[in-house]
Description:
By secondary structure, the chain is mainly α. The chain has one domain (90-298, 315-414): Na+/H+ antiporter like fold, CATH 1.20.1530.20. Helix content is 74%, strand content 1%. It has 19 helices and two strands. A two-stranded antiparallel ribbon has the order 1-2. Helix 5 (71-90) runs parallel beside helix 13. It is globular and about 65 Å long. The model is unreliable at 1-9 and 420-430 (pLDDT under 50).
Amino acid sequence: MIHAMVLAGGHGAEAVSVTLLLLAFVMIGAKLAGELVERLGQPAVLGELMVGILLGNLVADSWLAAMRANETFLVLAELGAVLLLFHVGLESTPREMMAVGGRAAAVAVLGVVTPMALGYGVGVVFRPNDSWMLHAFLGAMLAATSVGITARVLQDVGALKTPAARIILGAAVIDDVLGLIVLAVISGIITAAASGATLGYGAIAMICVKAFAFLFGALVIGSFLSPRVFKAALALRSRGIVQSLSLSFCFLLAWAALQAGLAPIVGAFAAGLVLEDVHFEGLTERGEPELHQTLEPLIALLVPVFFVRMGLLVDVRSFLDSSVLGIALALTAAAVIGKLACGLAVPKGMSGLLVGLGMMPRGEVGLIFAGIGATLILNGQPVIDPGTYAAAVFMVVATTMATPPLLIWSARRAGVATGADAGQEPRPHA
């Protein structure tokens, strides 16, 4: 009966029935797997991803095709990605980015340029017959850093307030901004090429200008408007104003990014950067819950859907092809070396190895980049084909799993691990 329901797909009541069934299995599977990997000292995202990989490779092909084709499930997964980047943006503000100093900025730039160059080189070596746009996208996938994983490990070992931690966290935020700009530019170039547009230097420069203009325009305009909008909202007496206005702002900028030919996550990230707790003070003082608190139930529902769906796209059989395994190992090596190079920009007397390892995990941001590549079409084919996508997921998992133990070892070696957990394995990471 369940098999028939999944295959039915359909519209109306049938589509709702199938989606509810998928959500039931996905939510319980993701939660149990997340709990398991957290007990092993790894972030829950890896468990959610593994559920998708298992579903994608153990269930019948007919079931798999039906799950991948379910449009409602796809929309929920996309909303999960938008909310995830909105939440990442909320962790920082433009003011904090400006205050990180020249050293953190230098670390960030080196942490974007070096892995991009190495990723491009991997594409040239392993995919010599493909377009330079694929090579550039491979480089872009290696640029971002998952700051949440590193922050939690540093907190566990009592090193969160050290100068090295401040440089890592400041540089990681700048990394995300630069990585999203790179993603926006390369995605725009690929989309333009797929539509048949002639891509001269002028056209590429225009796409770059549009990406920069959108992100910085959204930050400037949003920083001006958001405090005034929330101040005006004090006149409203209904509950849930903070959540409604914030999510509306997120979705509006995500929509605007799409209209500008960019990925919606770029707009969602910009919305998160703009919104600050100080904007909501008047509302929270009268009893409104804080924004982070109101987002938790939505994130708990939709973000696991996104990661499970990303796992569904991984075909483990791809690794039977030695070239796929080769590019997976090469991408992982490029990802690690590219971020370790960040250590070259740290001040004298600070551990470059600690900073480099702190910048290493790709986590959720790397998965989002890979997922976008799998949806971009060039010459009738996905920019990131199933084999390359599987290799990218391998890289994300490897860098994410390796970071906690290596970072703790490096913190002890550098003499900055002072917390209660300094001599233990890391606690689970959110």
